[in-house]
What we know:
Elements: E1 7-10, H1 22-31, E2 38-41, H2 57-71, E3 83-90, E4 93-99, E5 105-107, E6 115-118, E7 124-126, E8 128-131, E9 135-139, E10 148-151, E11 161-163, E12 172-175
Parallel strand pairs: 1-2
Antiparallel strand pairs: 3-4, 4-9, 5-11, 6-7, 6-10, 8-9, 10-12
Amino acid sequence: WYNNFSFYYVQIAPYFNYYNSNASLREAQRKALRIPKTGMAVTLDIGEKYDIHPSNKHDVGERFARLALSNQYGIDIVSSGPLYKSTRMAGDRVLVEFEHVGSGLLLVDSKWSEFEIAGEDTIYFGANVQNKGGYLEVYSDAVKNPRYLRYAYSDTSSATLFNLEGLPASSFSTIIKN
């Protein structure tokens, strides 16, 4: 067709029967956003753990519409939830920055933030998270020298991080840069 079409896709939703491969598949989908003219609708907040095809198609359609309105029609709208951008250390805390923050970050109160950090031994521990509006501070008393960070990194993870526009963050895993 001699045209560079846009390509949008839905990130795989939480599902219990992926044999611990769901998180790495979502990671590959997130990294595919490096390809020009791609967009991804995240469904960590609307997935149904026992149905691979969540019934909430309305929110998926709205997320696709936001991508198209922003990318194809130039409308000034937040088109994505937060996407991992970078980390840096500040003492024993990991500062995490995101793209598509919109008006700010929202960390939903829950007993499990879905953030985990590990040291050189790659043994992950649940992390404490402080929302600084445009970035997060992540730390754990169990990990004094953090080397690895991940968010929503299991088959059945649910979103706990959003932008203030209500769009969920994508899961991610990274090595922390000093």
